[in-house]
Each structure stands twice: as C-alpha cells, then as structure tokens.
Amino acid sequence: MESVLERWDWVVLGIYFLALIAVAVWVVLQKNKNTEDYFLAGRNVGWFVIGSSIFASNIGSEHVVGLAGTGFATGTPMAHYELHAWIVLLLGWLFLPFYMRSGAFTMPEFLEKRFDAKSRWFLSVFSLAAYVLTKVSVTIYAGGIVVSELLGIPFWYGAIGIVIFTGIYTVIGGMKAVIYTETLQTVILIAGSLIITYLGLQEVGGWDQLQETVRNVSPDHFNMWRPMNDPDFPWTGLLFGGTIVGIWYWCTDQYIVQRTLAANNIKIGRRGAIFGAYLKLLPILIFLIPGIIAFALSIQNPEVFGVEKADRAFPMLVKTLLPVGLKGLVAGGLMAALMSSLASVFNSCSTIFTIDIYKKLKPHKSEKELLTIGKIATGIIVVLGIIWIPIMEKIGGGVMYQYLQNVQSYIAPPVTAVFLLGIIWKRVNSKAAITTLLAGLALLIIRLGSEIYYQQELLSGQDISGLLYAFAKINFAHMAIFMFIFSVVLCITVSLATAEPNYEKIKGLSFGTLTAEHKKENKNSFSKIDVVLSILLIIIVFSILIYFRK
User: Which long-range contacts (CB under 8 A, 24 or more apart) does 481-486 make?
Assistant: First the structure.
C-alpha cells in the first residue's frame, strides 16, 4: 500500500503532531488536583474551548468516512442530522441550567438526583456497554481504515497507533488534555476540509455546474425531503425520528454534555453550546458537499476521479485535488477528527465508571485513589478497544454506518423521554423513570432480535406474514418515533398512577420546582447577544431546509 503523502506533506503532518504533543504536555504539567480537575477540567473552561470541544467530539469517523460517502451515494438527506445544530441550542437553553444546578459530574448522577439510584445504575451500565461496543470500536475501526489509506500503512498499525497515542494523553491529562487538544484539532480540521471544498468546487466548475452535473444523473440528489414511503430516508423519519435521536445525543449523552459541564457557570456553558451549534453546521459544507463534489467529478472525469466505493470519496479528493503540503494538513485534520472523538469516548467512559460505578461501590475512597482509578479505567477502555478491532474488522463500512443509525434510533427514545419529561414536568417520579427505561430496553432487544432473525428476508424484500416481521420491517427512524410516543405515554401513565415525588428533594431540578432565586439566576445567565445569535442560527437552519428541497 502506497501513501498519498509526499515529503513535504510528512513535514506538515509532523509539525501538527508536535503541536498536539506540546498542548498535551502543557496540560499535563498543570497537574490534576482532584476528580473535578480530571473529569471536568476544574469547571474553568472558556466558551470558545467548550464549543470547539463539542464540535470535535461529534466529528468522528462516521463523518470522515460515512457522511462524505453518503453525500456521494445518496445526496443531501443525511444533512437533516447535521442541522441538529438547533438541538445544541436546546442543550444550552433548556437542559444545561438544570444539570449545572444539580452539581452532577455525569448524566447518570443527574438521574439519581432527579429520580433515584435505580435510574442511575441503569444508565451507567447501559451507557458504558454502549460506548465500548459502538463508539469505541467503530471509531477505532474506521480510524484504522482512514489512516491506512492516507499514510499507506497496514490497517492494524494505523488503528493501534491512533488508540495508543490518544490513550496516552487522555490517561495522563484527563479532561483538560482532551478539551484543549480538541480546540487545536478543530482549527486544523475546519481549515483542511474547507480547502478541499473550495478546490473541489473549482474543479467541478462552480456551484451551478455542480448541481447541473449531478441532477442530470440523479435528479433527487439535492432533495432533502424524500417521500414518506422512501425505504431509506423518509422525511418524516429524518425530521421527527432524527430529532428524538438528536435530543438524546446532544442533550443527555455524557459524551457531549460533559464538555458544557466543564464551564464554571451557566452563562459560559450556554455560550459554548451556542458556538458549538454554529460549528455543527459546518459538516454539510466540509464533508457532505465534498461527497457530492466527488460524485460530480466521477461523472465528468471517471478516469481521474473514479471512486470504487462511496466511503472512499473523501480520501479520493485528498489524493487528487490537494497540492503537496496541503495533503499533510488535511491528513492531520482527518486524524484530528478521529483522535478527538476517541479521546472523548475514553474520557466519558472513565468518568462514568469512576463516578457512577466505582465511587458508588466504594464511597469512602480518597480523591487521589479515584484519580488513579479513573486513569486505570481509561487504560482498560483502550485495551478493550484494541481487543474489539478484529470483530469490527469483519463489519463493512456501509453496514457499520447503518448499524449505528439503527441502534441509536432504538437507544434514544426512552432516555430522551425520561430526561425531557423529568425536566419540564415535576410530577414525573422515580417509578415512572425506571419503568420507562426498562420498557425501552425490552423494545430495543425485541427490535434488534427481530432484525437479526429476519435479516435474509429483509434484505431480499420478502413479504412474510406475522407481527414480529412487520415490527422488524418498520423504518428505523419511524421506529424511533413509535418508541418515543410509547415511552412518553408510559412515563406519564405510571407517574399519574403512583405517588408524587418529594418536591423538596428535587428542588431546582424541574421547572415546577424552581424557586424565585433560581428564576433570577436563569434571567441573569444570558444577554441580548446570546438571544440574537440563537435566533439567527434557527433562521439559518430553516433556510437550509427550504433551499434543499426538490
């Protein structure tokens, strides 16, 4: 396998890694005094760093490989998920004040404060298992592919190299190392990818020519609004089902929320979320559009810009469009995306294990001992990630991406329902929360089990009678809607059928329990610029939705 990089590319790449190491060393030298330092960067991080970290944590292998590949193969429908920028606003305006007021380190810990220990234990174990089996393994697998493609090294070398390098600075530096290296990685990634988009548009003949070339071959490529009966991208599923998954991912998942909790007050955390929301719009421009550009170039000049597989669209652009030096910069940006996502997962897993599991079992352990356990936990996650690689290697890129979308659509609804209802309605009690979470888990098992059982029949499009097969046939995004409605109804029903919660115990953790002091605090936590920027972003999102219609 031959590297696409030349000598000066390697020089640029080397400079990037030296800068990354310098940032990590600077952070490590500051020392972590306690668990708050290690897991939440001392709750003293600025809004720019928080927003950059949110973006960098989100952008991973599924974007570098999957989103560009989807743009190549099917066009703009998946842009719905990137327009979840408005949901990042929801994190800052609706959820974050309650999270920070609770003083919680983790999302499971917040559930215990709002409901009870049962909910905390459920979400802790559930999240940890999901992280190891999906986020960790998938990032490592796709990361190995990208690195091997760019650097011309064997898959195993690339995958293990990324894991070890990322694991070292994550274990030693904790959240500070993760969040500050992500800031550098964000700058590099955006710069490199924007150059790709610019050069690609020049090569294809501009935006108008891009649309004309693509629409002549694929009329629906720029249409985000596919029919309700579309087997892959029904607009109802993407708009409503996607929103349910988005609220779970952006507002309740430790992976993302941990970044905003690193702020020392609600105002800074919210501004970080607003900045992160604007950055979230960029993947359409820096990954999805390049995928469409690759599709257009393969039509115009298939001999030069031919793409064997959709997932290779972005590496093809890197290889064919970029001059010497810039290839190294973009390669650094792509690896930055992979490493930042992996570092975030490592740190989130470590936090949940240490705070929500180990500390609960060993409540009298000192801060020093908890720090040691946190580092060991991260190391174990690194090892598990490496062990899981051979399994992930057997899963193809497209299958992997589809698998992730499916699983997230089944995980999200009950968690979203419990968090959302718990915050907006004080009447929701602990019995309703744990019942909803367990019922959601049961539905997840039934749905995945039926998909696996009828896998061949589903792929061949056979029509088989039976309730279970009908259940398995429902589009994954529509299934998210069904499961969410079920979870909301169940949660409300159980709450009304059982005793009210102790409102004194949950004071400040739900809208109905806010005191006059809490309301005053909320009012003072934002300014006119925060409101204006938030409204402007919603207008931008709405405008994009209108623009990309047939």
Answer: 481/236, 481/237, 481/240, 481/241, 481/244, 483/410, 483/413, 483/414, 483/440, 483/443, 484/241, 484/244, 484/412, 484/413, 484/416, 484/417, 486/413, 486/439, 486/443
